[in-house]
Amino acid sequence: MPIIVFASSKGGAGKSTSACLLANALANTGANVTVIDADPNRPLTRWASHAKLPDNLKVVTNKDESTILAEIKESAANSEFVIVDLEGVASVTVSYAISRANLVVIPVQGSHLDAVEAAKAVRLVRNQEEAFERKIPFAILFTRTSPAIRGRTLASIEQNFKEAGYPVFTTQLLEREAYKAIFSCGKTLYQLTSSHSSNIDKAVRNSEQFALESIRIVRGLPVEHPDSLDHGQDDKPNVAEIA
Amino acid sequence: MADEKRLNPIADILANEVEELRHGKGQPQFDNDDFPSADKVKAVGERVGFVSRDSVAVKQDETQEAVEVRKPYRWTTGRNRTTTIRASDETINLFDKVATKLKLQKGVVLERALAAFIRETGVDVDD
């Protein structure tokens, strides 16, 4: 079953949050999902230890680089989706995980530092594609963005990626309080209530758009712009929430 | 239910996509035998700076060798015996003065004084 790897050698790019959101969205469809936490800081292991996860969503902790391939193989045999959250460094573990991926998601915040590290991950993917003659789908995912304010840096980075021929998710993971509440409250996105965070419905829709786009890339299908899927519903957070 | 669908059509589309995937439509084919070996993957990664972060155990003999290389420099004179000689204050003071003046250990002064005495007297000490 599909193996979706979150990679960027920069810490804080949004790997764990976006991996968690994808796992939440897929598990909510009833799919059997295993998340491999290969980040030495163990953010998702900690989250899972506090959260009451549904039976079809499991988080396993990877020990080190010597075990990641076996962990992926075993999880793929027992789950419909395997999601790998990698450490924020350029390591052999990242190489191993990408070598088994059906999709590599490269989260990037709108900063030059993130973009440089994203380019390293892309270089690794392309080197592996060339060396092993295997197509490895990948795409850049902008995280913690604001639809209300589109900075010049973000626009410049998007343009650079476009010129370099990097595929970019049409969906951007917006800066949302609900995404932070998942970790601070120890809940899945679907267990949050209005007492935990505002605009949960918009957060759900945003993360499901991302999940849908991920699945379509895995399946080799064309990706529709999220606005066309949303039937005109406004998914923009209000300015107060961003602040 | 219809209202729920109108509220979040993406959830339904996503569920349909997952269901189609579950039935093999667009399902990626997996065969672990087709995957490159760990060694090959590691080599490709290292070429672009993705290196091992795990600590490496050092073999015992390598450790031993490293210890021997770092053995501190030590120089021994062989002057490790003591003896008591009864002498006058003047002789002892003169002995101290010579050693201080020449910046030599007293054992070295004694060795050189004996060698000079043997040369001067021609005494045969090999008997």
TrEMBL record, chain A:
<dbReference type="Pfam" id="PF07015">
    <property type="entry name" value="VirC1"/>
</dbReference>
<dbReference type="InterPro" id="IPR027417">
    <property type="entry name" value="P-loop_NTPase"/>
</dbReference>
<dbReference type="InterPro" id="IPR050678">
    <property type="entry name" value="DNA_Partitioning_ATPase"/>
</dbReference>
<dbReference type="InterPro" id="IPR009744">
    <property type="entry name" value="VirC1"/>
</dbReference>
<protein>
    <submittedName>
        <fullName>ParA family protein</fullName>
    </submittedName>
</protein>
From TrEMBL, chain B:
<protein>
    <submittedName>
        <fullName>Uncharacterized protein</fullName>
    </submittedName>
</protein>
